[in-house]
Amino acid sequence: PSNIPEPIMSFRPHIASQSSLPPETIERFSEIVGEKYALTGDAMQPFLREQRDLYQGRAALVLKPGSTEEVAAILKLANETKTPIVPQGGNTGLVGAQISFDGGAVVVSMVRMNKIREVSAAGNYMICEAGVVLQNAQDEALRHDRLFPLSLGAEGTCVIGGNLGSNAGGTGALAYGVARDLVLGLEVVLADGRIWHGLRKLKKDNTGYDLRHIFIGAEGTLGIITAAVLKLFPKPRAVETAFVGLESPEDALAVLNLLQSRAGNAVTGFEIMSRLGMEFDFRPLPGARDPLSEPHPWYALIELSSPVTGGLREVLEHALSEAAEKGILRDAVFAASEAQRAAFWHLRTGLSETQKPEGGSIKHDVSVPVADVPAFLAEASAAVVELIPGARPVPFGHMGDGNIHYNISQPVGSDRAAFLARWDEVNALVHKIVAKYGGSISAEHGIGVMKRDLLPEVKDPVEMEMMRALKRAFDPNNILNPGKML
Fold first, then answer.
1. How many C-beta atoms surround the C-beta of residue 100 within 10 A?
2. Are strands 61-63 and 106-109 parallel, antiparallel or unpaired?
3. For a 10 Å CB count at each end of the chain, is N or C smaller?
């Protein structure tokens, strides 16, 4: 629809559609959740701006349902009145999928649906409502001597519904997979208000189409996830962490392969970062310091985990010693305490925040096959610097699963606005190289509005038509998050 904005690459606030809902319709929606949980006017503002202020939204109403039945009643009325609905979790999304740009739309915030309905250590599952904060789910699993391995930088504020709607990835994807790999069953409210009671706890269920995966990663365009059966794993008894210095991404890949051959599935984290990114960390990040005695061109943060106590440190030490003997490792330090482990991770998780003082940053959330990460990094960096002399690539991310956050900071002393005005040009250049290696322009952040118009350029036409057919079948009146993704 024409009232959905283009991606705001110039970072200017966008004033979207001025349409509104009739007062009687607002009243009908409000009655479903009660006056306390129906927000209008200035009270809506926290739900209409995302954390980076790339997008400013509009809406007629924000509703905060407290039950699946209330969500069903909202969607039944929305379908009847043809009212656009924008589902929202913790409002931590990075592509604008959770923001309403229609003054006549209703934002449905799931934050009140925050109950953990059931935890089974014996069955290795937990049932969480969509508004459960990710960190609360992690903590509840640990209280039952289990692990829920999805882990993100925003885990203190993002919620399970948003994690599933965006098919979140994070640092645990190397060993445990992305969000869709961690779900056994779903409860979903469809566009017409019907409830799909799919909270199955089965690892094997061959009775037809696997409908879970239609809704996971769909960004609320096909239905609203209200609860999920999440997989749990044995709680690690041993965790060993190392911070290593490397000459190149090629050496990082070689170290990763060596570790996996020596430790197998115990390799649960392998994060890569450049020296420039580390230097960005050292300037503004509280408590940040170089773990190694000398600077190195590249670094990797390595973690091994096991439910078996003992022996893991020796495995890691022997593997890294072998890497040093092979000349693919320059230096390494092992975390001697939980505080030191946290300090290592602090350097990695702070990379997004510490780029802000350096000026404008053009960002990419991409993936390529793991074996092609070094070639991609070399080609992309050469191309970007040729296009914008002085530009500073700051790639980092989950090398173990091929997901690189390929960010580019502006040249020192250059004009921020002029640099950011070239966002589309730089995107096109980087995405062309991603395509060359058979990669993806969105590894874990989703499509939303930011990448909506890029999607037809990278998807097979038949694939796009299948997606549109699903949208027509599940949401014939186009009320669910219209203008997002498709």
1. 31
2. parallel
3. N
For the record, the structure tokens of 3 come out as 């009232």
Determine whether 424 is exposed, middle or buried from the number of CB atoms within 10 Å of its CB (0-12, 13-18, 19+): middle
Residue with tokens 């640990």: 142
**Residue 341 phi, psi dihedral angles, 5° rounding:** -60, -45
Query: CB within 8 A of 360, min separation 6: which ones?
Result: 409, 410, 416, 417, 419, 420
User: Which segments within 145-265 are labelled E, that is strand?
Assistant: 146-147, 183-189, 195-198, 224-231, 233-234, 238-246
| Token pair recorded at residue 133 | 């904060």
For helices 312-325 and 249-263, the axis angle rounded to 10 degrees is 140
Angle at 363 between CA 361 and CA 366, to 5 degrees: 160
- Specify the 3-state DSSP secondary structure of 205: coil
Q: What is the pLDDT of residues 350-361, one digit of tens each?
A: 998 899 999 999
268/392 Cα distance (integer angstroms): 30
Amino acid of residue 141: A
Q: Could you give the C-alpha distances from 215 to 112, 165, 196, 464, in angstroms and in order?
A: 21, 7, 11, 16
pLDDT digits (tens, 9 = 90+) for 440-466: 999 999 999 999 999 999 999 999 999
The whole-model pTM stands at 0.92
Q: Mapping DSSP to helix (H, G, I), strand (E, B) and coil, where does residue 96 land?
A: coil
Buried/exposed 161-179: b ≥16 CB within 10 Å, e otherwise: bbbbbbbbbbbbbbbbebb
State the Cα angle at 374 between 260 and 429, rounded to 5°.
140
With 50 as the cut, is the pLDDT of residue 425 above it?
A: yes
**Mean pLDDT over residues 84-107, rounded?**
96
405: left (phi over 0), alpha (psi -120 to 50) or beta: beta
